[in-house]
Fold this protein.
Amino acid sequence: MSADSQSHTNPYLLMNSSTIFHSTLLNLLFIFLLLPPFPTASAACCQRHQEAEFLEAYATIIGDSYAEATQTPEPASTLSSCAAQGSLSELSQTTHTLNADTSSSSLTSSVCGPSCILTVPVGVTLNINSDLNIAALEVAGAVVWAQPANTQQFLCAGYIAVTGSFTMHLQDASKTAYVYIKNNGLKHFFLGSRAFGAYQNDAGQPAALLDVNGREMRRTWSLLSTPLATGSSTMVLIHDPTEMGWSTGDRILISPTQRSGSQGEAEAFSIINISGNILTLSSPAQQDFDATFKARNGLVATKSAEVINLSRNLVITGDEFENVACDDSLTDDFGEGISGEGCMCTGIRSTCTVGLHTIASKNAVLKLQNARLERCGQRGIAGKYCAHMHRLSDSPDSIIRNNAFEHSMQRGVVIHGTHRSTISHNVFSDVRGAAMYIEDGNEMLNNLDYNVAICPWRLGDDQKWGCTIPGTSNNEADTSLNQAGVWALSPTNNMLGNRFSNSFNGMLYETNAFGGNGRQFSENKACTVFQPMGRIEGNTFHSHGRFGTYLLSSTWPKQHDLAALLANDGQKISNPNSCTGWTDDGTDRGWPSTLKNNVDYHNTFVGQYDAGDVMYENHFSESNNCLIYWKTSKDFADGCSSHLKGGYYSNGAMNLPDQGAFIIEDTTFETNVVFEANHHCNIGVTGMLCAPTYVFDRVTFVKPDFRFYWADDLTSDNMAEAAVFVMAPDWSASDGDDSTPFPSPHISLASSKYSNFLLSYDSLNTCVTSTSLGVGNRFTQGILCSKPLRVMKIWTFDQDEATAPPLEVEIWRDGELILTASTKLYAIGSPTGRKQGYRFPVVLDDHASEYRIKLEGGLDIPDDWVIEFSDPVFGNRWSEETLKFQAQGRSCSGGTISSQHDRKWVFSSSSEFMGDNARGRGACSAHSDSSPVDCANVDAIELLSCEAECNGGTGCSGNSFCECGSGGNCKCEAGFSGESCEIDICEEVNCGPHGHCSARYLGGDLLPTKAQCVCDENWLGDVCDKNPCDAVSSDQCGSGVCVNLNENEWACECFDGWSGSDCSDTCVGFCQGEFPHSCNKFGGTYVYCNGGGGCMYQDEGGQRDNWCLMVGGGEGGGLGGGEQSSPAPTPQGVEDKCDCQRECNGDIPKDYLWCSTTGGCSYEDVYTSKGEDWCLFKGAPPTSAPTPAPVPCEDVCSPNPCAQSNPNEYLWCSSWGGCSYQSIYEEKNEQWCLYSGSAPTESPTKAPTASPTTAAPTTKSPTKAPSKAPSTAPTTKSPTKAPSKAPSTAPTGAPTTPNPTSAKAPTSSTSSPTSPPTYLSIHEQEFNILDFAKDSCDDIDFDCAIQFLIPGGLLFLGVTICCCACRRKGKVEKQSLELQNLEAEMTNMGNPIADNLSKFV
C-alpha cells in the first residue's frame, strides 16, 4: 500500500468543526459569577481631568474626614490662637533674629509674635519650652524641643525652614505637642507655602537635620484575634494593647475585609477600656470584620482585619485645606503639566487643594518618628506631600517610622531620588493618591517595612470615590484609573511585611511609566524596565478592586553592578549593555528574582502583564478573581528555575502567560481553580505566538474541581489554542491518584483544535479525547495524551498574515507517510510585524516518528527563519529531548533536533526579541547547540542580597543576609533580631508539628498573645494538636473530604455532584449527562435534577419524589424518594390555584409558570400546551398562538451589521446592532427583525432543553442512586432517601467552587442553611481601553460591547469576549452564533446574565 493511500489529510490543524467558545465563555462567566458588587465605569470621579466633580463633592470629603486639631474641647481650645487667623499682608510682617547663644520660646514670644518671622542664625540654639506663635521660623542654627512644660504645647508658624537642625524628642506620654502650620499666606523661597522642612543646597555645609520623635509606641498596628460582629462594642486583638503602648482615648481604625473590590468601609473608634487583649469601643461596629488564620502547604496567611492606632503625642497639623486658584504665569519644567512653584493652570486644573507638607531636600536628613500628620499634601503642586524625601541620594540615616498619616490630599510618603532610607511601621488612612510613592526611577534599596495602608472609603461612593484624587502628576498612581497603596517606578527597593487594604490596587510597580527610562531628574538616565528586583517578602494585599500584587506591564530584571549603580545615584552607568537585554554575543542578561511569602486574597486580580525572570515563591493566593494574572513571560536566564514554586492557590482563575516553558513546581491547588492558557494572547499586541508549554512538576490538586481551557480571542482564528499542558518528565499520573492534573496514564493535554492532528497520530493509542474518558468538561473537550507533547515554533520574517503560504506538516513512521496537515501563518498585532510564525504540537515518542515541514507548493523553509523546538529547561532540569525532524531547504544535523539548540538573540523581553541578529538562529542552522546547564549546580533563586560585600566576601551567616550597598552590614531576616540575629520571635511559641508561628511577618519584637499558632488544615486548638478527622479513614467520605466542625466533631464535605452522609450519592445515571446535568448549580441553595432533563431550584431542602438532589445534600443521601418531607412554603405573590405549585419558584421572571403533579416545574416565555399532569399557576393561555407581524428590516436595523449568509435557517438583526442566527424559529420582541427565513404559520413549540421547562419523566421512579459515578451511565434506580439538613456553609467564591454538602458524623450538630448566592457584578477596568485602542485595530468601534448591564451592575467578561468587537470590521461576526447559543443555554439554566448576552452579539 502506498504512503499516499495510508495518509489522512487535515487541511488546517486548528480548523476542527466543533467549537469550545461557549464552554470557554461559561468558564469565564463562572469565575466572576459569585464576586460581590463592584463600582461601575459610570462612577463620577476621579481621573486626572475630573477636577469639577471633585470640587463639587469637596464639602462632603472634608466633612467626612477627621482632624485632631478640630476636636473639642481640646486641642481646639489650645490651638484657637493659631487656627484660621488669615493671611498676613507684607506691611504687617516683621522679622526678628536671635543673637544670643541660646534662647527660649518663653523669652522669644515677647519680642516675636504672630506677624513676626523668626530667624535662628548659625551658632544659636532656640529651646522650645512654652507655646510659640509666630509668622514663620527659619533655622540656620538649632531648635531643640524637649518635654513640654504644659500638658499641651504648640509651635505655630506659616512655615518652618531648617538649614541647620530641628530636634524634637517627646517621650512623656502625658503631654502632647503640636506643630501647627498656619495658612497665613507666607511662602518660603525654596520650600514653598505651609512647609515644615529641612534643606541644604550647599554641598559643602553639614547636612540639615529634621528630627522629630514622639513617645515611642512598641506597635502601631495589630490584627483581630476573633471576628468583630455587627453590633459588638468589644474587639479582641492578637497583641496585648497595653504592651503595644496603646491607651484609653486612642483613636483606632479597622480595615474592611469583605471580598468587595474596593467596596469596603473602614470604621473608626475611640478606646473606652482595655482589659487584656480586649478593647471596649466607643460605639458598636456597623458591619462584620473577619479574622481568619490559615496555613496551607507550609504557608501562613493571617487573613484578619488590620487595626491601626492613629493617635500620637506629637501632632503635625495645621489649618484646613484651601482650594487656591491657579497661576497662569507658572510653567512646567518637566513636561508633566505640574509645577513645584505653585498651582499651575492647565486644561485639567484650575485650582489646587493646599494643606501642609513636610520635606527633607538635597543635603539633608529626615528622622520622622512616632508622630501624627494630618491635613497634609497639596493637590496639583509638585513635591508637596505629607512626607517627602527629595533627592537625598544615599541616605541610610533618614527614617520615617511609627507615624500615623490621616487626611491627605496628595499622597503620603514620597521617596524621590533617595536611596537606602527606611519607611517602617507607619499607618495610613484617608490618604488620597498613593500612600507610599517611589518617584523618579533611580531610587534604590529603600526599605519599606511593616507599614499598613487602609483606604477607608468605598471606591463606589459617589462623593468620595475611595482614595482617588484628580489633578496630580500621575494619572495611574493617584486617580480612579489605577490608584494604589504603594506605587513605584523603580523596582530596586525592598518591601517587607507591609499590609494594604481596600485601595483600587494594593501594590503597583509600573516600571514602564514615563517611557521606562526614568523621569524628571533621572529622565533617560534609568532603565526601570530592566532594573533588578528588590526584596519583596511577606506582604499582604486584600480587598482591592483591581490588583493586590501588581507588577503591571514590563518587568524584566537584568544583570547590573549594584554598587556602581548606587555610586552613580542610581542612574545608569557607562556600560553600553546596562539597559539592553543581551550581552555582546546574544546571551540573555536576565537576573532571576523572586517574590516570596506574599499573601493575596479578596482582590480582583493578582500578578502582572509582562514579566520574565520573576518567580512567585511560596505565594498564598486565595479567593481572588484571578489568582495569578500573567500575559507574557520567558524561560529563566539561569536555565532552570520555576515560575511558580511552593505556592497555594484556591478559588479563582490561573490566567497563564505566553512564551517559553512556564514551570509550576511543588504547588497546591485546592478548590475551584480554573487554568486559562494564553491569557490575553493576541489582544492588541499581547503575547508572542501564543504557544507556551505549561509544566506541572509535583503539584497537588486537593479536590477534583479544577478546569482547563484556552483563551479564545475574537480577532483571529483560534490563535490561543497552541498552548499545551504537560507533566514534568520524571513525574507521571498513577491510577486512582486525584492529586495529579490528568487521569492515568495521560501526561499531556492539548486543545481540541488539534484533535484531528493528534488523534490520527497512532490511531488513538497515544491521544484520546477527554470526553471519551468522561472528563470533557474538566478539560474543555481537550485531547489527553499518554506521551509528552512539546511545541514546535517556526518564527518567520517579512511575511504578511494574509498572503503567507501555509506550512505543511508531515508525520512519517517506518518510511511511510501517515499524516499530512497544514497550518496558516499567525501574526500578533500587525499582520506584517515581528510577532509572526507557525506553531503546532509534536509528540515525543523515542524517534518512532519523524516530522517533516515545508511550505505549500513544495517551497523550502527560508534560511533566516528561526525553528524552535521544546525548551532548554527540559534538558537542563531533566534530560535532553530530541525529535526526528526535517525542514525542507534546511540542514538538520543527523535528521534530529534537540531541545538544547541555539537560541541566542531570540527572546529576552517583550521588547527585545526576533531582531535582525536572530535571523538564521535556532535549530537546523549553522549555529551550535547551547552549552548544557546542570541545574543541580545552579543556586536557588534568593531574595536580593550582596553577600560578596560582607565578611570579606564570605557573606552573612545564620539568620541574616548582606544588605546591598551597606558596605558590609549583615541584616536580620524577618522575625529575627539581636546582635547576631540569634533571637527568633517564634522561638517561644510551641506550635507542634501541625502549627506555624503567626508572628514571622508582623514586625517588631512583641509576640502575639492570641492566635500565636496557625494550624494546618483540619488541625485545631491553641497549639494545633486537635484533629477529629485524623481518626477518619479515607473511604468514610467517599467523593468528598473530612472537615472538622470543632475540636471534637467532624463532617464530610462533598465534591460537586455528590451528597449523602458519606458523599456516596450521585445523580449520574439518574439525571442526564455529567454534573451539573445541564442545570445551573448556583440557582439555589438546593438544586435538583430529573431524568427528563428538568431542574429545580429551592431555598429549602428535602426529599422530592423523582428528583435527584445534586447540590445542597446533607445527611441522609442525595436522591429523592421514599417518605415525603414537608413541602416548601408557597411562593409569595402566587395565587393558590394549583396543588403542585408549592414545589416551584413563583418569582421566576417568565410569563408562564407551570407545575406538575409528578414534581416538575416549567418556566416559559412562550405559551405551549401541556399534558393533564401540568397546571399553569401563573399566566393565562392566549386565545390563539401569536404570529410575528411582518416588519421591514430596514425600518428596524439599518444598516444591518449582521452576516447576510449563515448556515442557520432563521437570521435576525436588532435595532441596537445585535445579530441572532438560529436553527429553530423562536418569537422575539419588536426590537428584532427576521431578515432571512420565514416565520411558520403556527407558533412552534420550543425544542426540548435541559432546563426547568422539561417535565418530569413518566417512567417508573428509581429506587436507589449509584454509590460512585460510573464511567458509563448505570441502570436507573429510584432514590430512596432525602437529605435532612443543609450544608454547613453556603458556597462562596468563584462559580466553579464546589457546592459542598456537610454530612455530619454521628456526633455533629445540624447547621442552618445560609442564603443562596446572588449574581454579582465586576468592573471592566482590567481591560485598559486606552492601551487597547493604542494597540488594536485602527477603526475600533468604541460602541462595541465591552461591558453590559446585568442586575447589580457591570459584569466584566475578560478578554474572552471584550476584545474590541469592531462590528464595522466584522471581527466578531463569526462568534455571534455561539453567543446566541450560549444565551439560550444560560436562559435554560435560569441564569439572569442570559438576558443581557444578546447585547454582545
